[in-house]
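Possible regression after last week's pipeline update?

I re-ran a chain I had predicted before the update to compare outputs. Posting the input and the new output here so someone can diff against the archived version. Not blocking, just want to make sure nothing changed silently.
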Amino acid sequence: MGIAITAIGMPATAQIAQAPAVPQTAPVVPPPVQPTQTIPAPVAIPAPVVLPQLSEAQHAQLADLIAKNAVTQGLRERARPAQVDLDNDGLVRAALDHARAVHSGRLDQADFLKVWGIRPQPYDPLPAFAAAVRSDTLANWIRTLGPPWAGYDALVAGLDHYRTIAANGGWQTLASGPDLTLNATGARVIALRKRLAIEDKAVSVTGDRFDQALLDAVRRAQRRYGLNPSGIVSTQTLAMLNAPVEARIRQIMANMERWRWLPSTLEQNRIQVNIAAAVLTLFDGDNPVMSMKAVTGRPGDETPMLVSQIHSIVLNPPWNVPTSIATRELWPKERANPGYLRRAGFRVIDNGDGSKRLQQSSEKSALGRFKFDFPNEFAVYLHDTPAQAGFAKFDRLASHGCVRLEKPEALATRLLATNPEWQVPEIKATVAGGKTVRAQMADSVAVYLLYWTAFANPDGTVSFRDDPYSWDGVLADKIEARSAAQAVAAR
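New output (post-update):
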């Protein structure tokens, strides 16, 4: 008997065929040698996912929880009817999709701009959901979906507060006119009191005079908006006060979405830079232990969002000028004023391929005396600067993308404190000597460059900033496009 081998992809059972009889006297001709063929291993087919089975009571409860939680977590403006008409598997899948949106956001990888260098971690909500079904703890499960950070929880409270304001009619637009300040009187002062009182319960709505209490309230509002707390209500303050409450709600929702991109576990020691507010904060756990003003990228030279680790600090760093800056700014200055580069401490270095680059010596370096290095694809870092006047401004988006620091020596001293070779005397002596030295940190520190245009205190008091890079609007557009595509796919 002979065995005829079936083609790859046919059923595994072999076909059995009768071999023809061969005459005994005839020579036996061996079959031609066939080239060796590699038969690919069969592809493993994943086992079908078995979805939990809900009881009738759980079905109704889960539908209601999703509808309400979507509003609380800023996924929707208002609740949709509970999806009780879905079958078991349909509702379970809706619950898992909701969990992913609350935990990790609503964007796909392709939706992220390159400068949004933070990506949510992979997340599978099924195991925890299945356990909640078995233990009948769905309400507790849905409460644990959001990012586990105080900053996110504060925005949840702030979102609820501003939605209440919207439900009560929002606020009236303040009329333009002469600047309002201490001792001003009239209808515009009355309107100002009413407007401030909506966000600040300490403000009295009685009286038409701009008194000291109203001056203090204006200053509190200006600090919340990142403005100069002069107490004078002029064009900038009016613009921030006149932003509609619906715009503030959308702004809070955009920032809640960015919180979902962060890891579920943050390092005990970390630096966070709020790019939009131009502020650096050093954290120990979830507690801020140091804060300082910063200068971040101007529109067009945006500081990217990213996560990295600082391992070392360069003392007396030279500045290796990026080609884009040299081409756009420095070479034109040299052509207009020959000798400018030499006077400013720049060296012209031949790259060996006919091109040239610029390096500014450490004595005159735009990086000052401290440079905090961390690996990233954008070639940005934290650094000192000799241009200290920039920190006196309230609009501090003025760099080429790197982050300039108001108190770099204080930060360096703190970060190097655990290295016995780099205590305060050694740091000061090295800086004074002028030699470029890289000081290794005994313990690396995580650094997060983040874009917060809305952030809140635990009591729900929200501070707002302008959207200088228009990233809030871009994010909202991408979420709406993604939601629309998902709705079409679900039909």
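Follow-up from reviewer: compared with the archived run. The longest strand covers residues 437-450. Marking as no regression found.
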